[in-house]
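Known limitations

Structure tokens in this collection are predictions and should be treated as such. Users comparing against experimental data should check residue numbering before alignment. To illustrate the layout, the record for Oidioi.mRNA.OKI2018_I69.XSR.g16845.t1.cds is reproduced below. The input appears on top and the generated tokens appear beneath it.
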Amino acid sequence: MMRVKAPPPYTEQTTVEAQVVTTQPQYVITTQYAQKSWKVDYRSLSWCDGHCCSAFWCPCCAHGSVSQMSGGGYGGPCCLRFCFGFIAVFFLVEERERMRQSQQITDPPVGCCTVFWCESCILASMLYEVGH
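Generated tokens:
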């Protein structure tokens, strides 16, 4: 009978470091919406445009029409513009922002200075958007 020799003892020491997982895989879901702009941009309007001209000569009526076509009342915005023109600028900025969000328009919002100096063009653009 033949004897099998045992292997020599293992003398070399090996250290194994365990890797600690500190972050888990992340899944990012991005939703892209179609780019939508205003039907008529306020920067492309001229004074010869009917909506722009009427908004210049009677901004009270234009404010009222925009509000009414957007689902609000006519009288409040019209009187607000007539009595407190400077304050109405801030309300127009807010109304344009609400319209931009409800229509899912991806163009950036406009500031108070733009509305103050180009109020008739802003109103005309909004009138085109609501289909007046």
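For this record: Residues 85-102 form the longest helix (18 residues). Residues 42-130 form one domain. Please report discrepancies through the issue tracker.
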